[in-house]
Each structure stands twice: as C-alpha cells, then as structure tokens.
Design goal:
Layout: E1 17-25, H1 30-46, E2 49-58, H2 70-83, E3 87-90, H3 96-106, E4 110-113, H4 114-125, H5 129-147, H6 155-158, H7 168-202, E5 208-213, H8 219-227, E6 244-251, E7 254-260, H9 270-275, H10 277-284, E8 288-294, H11 300-314, E9 321-326, H12 333-340, E10 345-346, H13 355-368
Parallel strand pairs: 1-2, 1-3, 3-4, 5-7, 5-8, 8-9, 9-10
Antiparallel strand pairs: 6-7
Helix pairs in contact: 1-4, 4-5, 5-7, 7-10
The structure holds guanosine-5'-triphosphate and magnesium ion.
Length: about 375
C-alpha cells in the first residue's frame, strides 16, 4: 500500500527532503521543550531528512483546528517558501483534521508528526521479515486509527498529487482492505511469537541478559564490548530493530546469552509497542535486564524515566535489573561526581573501562538470583 507520508527506505538515497520542524510549546518551563525539539531533529535526520528550519509557537494550548494558530501557519508557509522545504514535521501529535488543515493551508507540502516519523524510521531500518511484519502492522494500525476522524484525504495517499478526493465508497473499501491485512498480519505475528517462544525453550539452560535502554544509549556497543561481537552501531536513533542474541562467557563458569534489541523513546507510538510484541518478548522473558543509560546525555534523567515507563507497560518492571551508566568517557568532571552517588555500574563501551567489572557484577547477580548457570569448560 502506498502511503504518501511513509517514504520508502530507498528514498534516502535519492536526496534528502528539505524539512521544517514545527512545535507548539505549551509548557511553563521551555527547557524540556527544547530537549524534545532537539530529539525531533535527530529523528528527522535518522529518517533521511535535512532539517533547514524550526518554527516554535508558545501558547497555552495547541489550536484544535490547525495545531498552530492562523498567523503562525502563514509564517510557516513563508518559511517553507523561503527555505525551499517540502516537508513539515510537527513535534505535537496531529489529529487527522489538523493535518488536513495544515496541508490545505500550506499547499504542496507533506505534513507529518513525530509518531509517523518514528514509524518511518522503523520502516527504513527493518531488515528481517519479523521486523518488516511488525512495522507494517504498526503503520496500518496507525493509519486506521487516524482514518476514524474521516477527514484524511486518502486519494493523496494512493494516487498522485492532484488526484481528486475519494467518495465514501473508496474510503470504506480502503478501510476494509486494511482490516483484512491487519487480521492476516495478526496471524503471522502470532506464529512468529510461538516460534520465538519455542526457540527460547530450546536454549533454556543458558540465562538471557537483555540490554534495554533509551535509543542511542549504547546498547549495541555494550553488547560488542561484553562479547567481542560486531553488531551494527550508529550515532542515530533506532539503529537496531531486530533482536540480536550472542552467547558469551562472562567469567569462568558463567555463560549467558546477551540480547540486544530495539531502543525505547519517550512517547513511543502505542502502535509500535503493540506490534513489536514478538521482539519485545526477548526483553520480558530475560533473567536479568541491563538498563543502559547514556551518562553523557544532559537528558539522561528523563530518558531513564521514559525507559522505566516503557518497561512497566511491558510488564517487565519487576524483572531484576542493573543500571549501567555508559559513555563515562564523555562525561564532564562535575557530572561524574553526580554519577558516583548513583547506584549501578559505570562503563565505557567505547574505551572498555568498567566492562570487566560489569561482567563480574552480572555474574554475581545471576548467582544471587539462583539462576541455573551452565558450568563446564
Ligand atoms: N563516547 C562514547 N560513545 C559511545 C559509547 N558507547 C556507544 N557510543 C556511541 O553512541 C552511539 C550509539 O551507540 P549504539 O551502540 O548504536 O546505541 P544503541 O543503544 O544500540 O542505539 P539504537 O540501537 O539506535 O537504539 C554510537 O555513535 C556509539 O559509537 C561510549 O561508551 N562512549
Ligand atoms: Mg542498537
């Protein structure tokens, strides 16, 4: 199904879309808003966009009709012209009619919100059939949820620019097609979950230690540092989507399977949470979690809290867990004092500092949890 707002992965190679970020700041304290806009920029870049401008409006409440106030919409239009941008990404979630109002006011411009952007990055980064199935499911669910408003112009999704709007019939047909596809995907994903469960049973004698954490915290880097593997690492959100499992010997007599998987983010679209159950089962069935935190990130407290929220939503907040403060090599001096008081282990996946100590801490914790450990040579 062609989705006008879902750029296929290969589009990144065709040249970057010039993009303007827009956000309505409804908070009293703008510092959090600034962090969110900064993160949105990283997300847009990960999706292959070139961010050419930002537009911020401070107001008590987003405009229910068009997100931004009318004057701001005009300003945005001028900014788009001036910067020759073709895409707008909003920080705030867009209701279907707000998106339609913005698109009609701005002319030939694509308008999407942060959730659609995240879904797009997932689509671009999905490699395995499981990952692709899950992303398609999340996108479809998101589309269906955003059709309910009724004002979404489907013709512009299926056809080219200038295609006339569909009648009610086309809308209904599209809806039915999507529902059929969703039930098919549901069955396929159920099978994937069953298969994964069987695989887990097959390796039950080795405990699984799952790396969890905010996206870009350094989970894959830490997996590599702990196991000598060469898992893909990149300075961008959602570099990893598909679970990677690596069996490794931590210390003599303690073998574990390290599981690296998709990173979390604040306000992870709920469709993604639901669709990624098969992948996330690797987290919820682990014997122990390593919560990897980017200690060098000024936003680390909010990120840590967001990860805890997601874990609670998954029902994984009761699993034993170790806080791992990563990127300690990049932490400034006054900050490192704060970290000394934090519980957990400080490491650098980059330099290897603390990694040996972390291995012992994990082994010790598994022993204290009476997790059966494989022995032998
Ligand atoms: N300075 C420093 N950079 C690090 C460290 N660990 C990871 N990085 C960098 O942080 C970025 C993200 O690392 P990844 O290992 O891909 O992070 P991740 O948590 O797996 O990210 P996603 O899979 O995208 O969620 C990369 O640019 C790494 O090189 C570290 O200890 N110190
Ligand atoms: Mg990763």
């Amino acid at each position: 199904m062609a989705h006008r707002t879902f750029r296929p992965p290969e589009a990144a190679a065709r040249g970057k879309e010039r993009t303007v970020l827009a956000g309505v700041d409804t908070r009293k304290d703008s510092s959090l808003f600034d962090i969110e806009m900064h993160e949105l920029r990283a997300l847009a870049e990960a999706a292959g966009a070139e961010v050419v401008a930002e537009l911020v409006q401070r107001r008590a409440k987003a405009d229910p009709a068009s997100l931004l106030g009318l004057g701001k919409v005009e300003e945005l239009k001028a900014l788009l012209n001036e910067s020759k941008a073709t895409t707008v990404v909003t920080l705030n979630a867009l209701r279907p009619r707000q998106r339609a109002a913005l698109e009609s006011a701005l002319g030939d411009v694509k308008v999407l919100d942060r959730s659609v952007l995240i879904l797009d990055i997932f689509a671009a980064h999905a490699r395995t059939s499981e990952g692709k199935l899950q992303v398609e499911m999340a996108q479809l669910r998101h589309r269906v949820a955003n059709l309910i408003g009724g004002s979404d112009r489907l013709s512009r999704l299926g056809g080219g620019i200038g295609t006339r709007g569909p009648g009610e019939t086309k809308l209904e047909v599209d809806r039915r097609r999507m529902r059929l596809r969703i039930s098919r995907l549901t069955r396929e994903l159920d099978q994937v979950r069953v298969r994964r469960r069987e695989q887990r049973r097959g390796r039950a004698e080795t405990p699984v230690v799952a790396l969890v954490g905010y996206t870009n915290a350094g989970k894959s880097s830490l997996l590599n540092a702990l196991s000598g593997a060469h898992v893909y690492v990149a300075d961008q959100p959602f570099a990893t989507l598909d679970p990677t499992l690596r069996k490794t010997r931590l210390v003599s007599g303690v073998d574990v399977i390290l599981a690296d998987t998709v990173g979390f983010i604040t306000d992870l679209p709920k469709e993604l949470m639901a669709a990624f159950r098969a992948t996330l089962d690797e987290v919820t069935s682990a014997a122990l979690l390593l919560h990897v935190i980017d200690a060098s990130n000024p936003d680390r407290s909010r990120q840590q809290a967001s990860v805890e929220t997601v874990l609670a939503q998954l029902g994984a907040d009761t699993l034993p867990s170790i806080e791992v403060w990563n990127k300690i090599d990049a932490v400034s001096q006054p900050d490192s004092q704060v970290l000394v008081d934090s519980p957990g282990v400080t490491v650098s996946a980059k330099t290897g500092a603390g990694v040996g100590a972390l291995k012992s801490v994990i082994a010790e914790r598994l022993r204290s949890l009476s997790v059966p450990l494989s022995s032998g040579a």
